[in-house]
Design a protein that fits this description.
This protein is 57% helix and 14% strand. With 221 residues, it is α/β, with parallel strands linked by helices. The chain has two domains: 134 residues, Response regulator (Rossmann fold), CATH 3.40.50; 71 residues, Orthogonal Bundle (Arc Repressor Mutant, subunit A). The protein has a six-stranded parallel sheet, with helices on both faces. Helix 2 runs parallel beside helix 3, helix 7 packs across helix 10 and helix 8 crosses helix 9. The longest helix has 27 residues. Pfam families: GerE, Response_reg. InterPro entries: CheY-like_superfamily (IPR011006), NreC/VraR/RcsB-like_REC (IPR058245), Sig_transdc_resp-reg_C-effctor (IPR016032), Sig_transdc_resp-reg_receiver (IPR001789), Tscrpt_reg_LuxR_C (IPR000792), WalR-like (IPR039420). Keywords: DNA-binding, Phosphoprotein, Transcription, Transcription regulation. GO terms for molecular function: DNA binding.
């Protein structure tokens, strides 16, 4: 990767968590941690000051929680990509964040390579879906609301072509454009074109919302 480094703001009320994330991210020469915040309000101010590309937001923080901060960032600075930091115990909050346009989520004990990959994906405009964690959370979500959501989701997906449904199904599995391309024997650029078309047809803000819709519609089961 060449060009300007990815500018990141880390927001978590635990100094040790922030220090660990900073250490991991700065091991990549293409990532620059420009600021650290201990609450959501401070995160918003720092993003405004530094023009961050990616914001890592903890959900549970004093003064302003991560979900509220994410909503404000989406309104005020839509170019900043928000990735939520969470634990398995916060499933409903995570799902609300994803449906509100977050660029994905990470578990706090995620592997260093996955953390770096998530930041890179978010900066590139892709919503990062950690396959194991996302399936766990989305399965919990869809199993509780399947009856209410499935029919609506299937009617929306019906407008897609067969190939678009194939791509959407892989989004629901949490695959990146590159991985989806390998599975479908397409170039990464072709998959990206399909994803853009799918998002427009389904009126989804990002691929996380499209992935949730795919699961509701039963794709990939």
């Amino acid at each position: 990767m060449t060009g300007a480094p990815i500018r990141v703001v880390i927001a978590d009320d635990e100094p040790l968590i922030r220090a660990g994330i900073r250490m991991i991210l700065t091991s990549d020469r293409q990532i620059e941690v420009v600021a650290e915040a201990s609450n959501g309000r401070e995160a918003i101010e720092l993003v405004r000051a530094h023009g961050a590309d990616v914001v890592l937001l903890d959900i549970q923080m004093p003064v302003m929680d991560g979900l509220t901060a994410m909503r404000e960032l989406r309104r005020a600075m839509p170019s900043a990509r928000v990735v939520i930091l969470t634990t398995f115990g916060e499933r409903e909050n995570v799902l609300r964040a994803l449906e509100s346009g977050g660029a994905g989520f990470l578990l706090k004990d995620t592997a260093p390579a996955e953390l770096i990959g998530a930041v890179r994906a978010a900066a590139a405009g892709d919503a990062y879906l950690s396959p194991a964690a996302t399936r766990h959370v989305v399965d919990q979500f869809t199993s509780g609301r399947a009856a209410a959501r499935s029919e609506v989701a299937r009617s929306r997906v019906a407008q897609l072509s067969a190939r678009e449904r194939d791509v959407l199904s892989l989004l629901g599995e949490g695959l990146s454009n590159a991985d989806a391309g390998r599975r479908l024997h397409m170039s990464e650029a072709t998959v990206k074109t399909y994803v853009s078309r799918i998002l427009a047809k389904l009126e989804c803000d990002n691929r996380v919302q499209a992935a949730l819709l795919a699961r509701d519609a039963g794709l990939g089961d």
